[in-house]
Amino acid sequence: MYGVIDFSRIDTLPGGCGPFAPPAGWQGDYREYLQARFDDDIGVRQQITVVSRILVCPAGRTPTRFLGPHAVAAREFARSVWPSIQRN
Known about the structure:
There is one protein chain. The protein is mainly α. It has one domain (9-87). It has three helices and two strands. It has helices at residues 30-40, 42-56, 71-87, and strands at 9-11, 65-67. Strands 1-2 form a two-stranded parallel ribbon.
């Protein structure tokens, strides 16, 4: 369903590909959009969790680059996921 996933490049451009990219023409609060996708879609949740783990524990992996208009917010959201999972 999701195909090959390149976790070194995260696209946040509306209409782009991947869990961090809203649909074309989307407007609104990006953080709320990501949280809703994370809560409602297990595939999105898994992908964001993997990105979060890579950001928090890089261990020699290729650095993840966030691209597009929501790059900063996407990185902040992803970084927040792994620590919250570890607390539970």
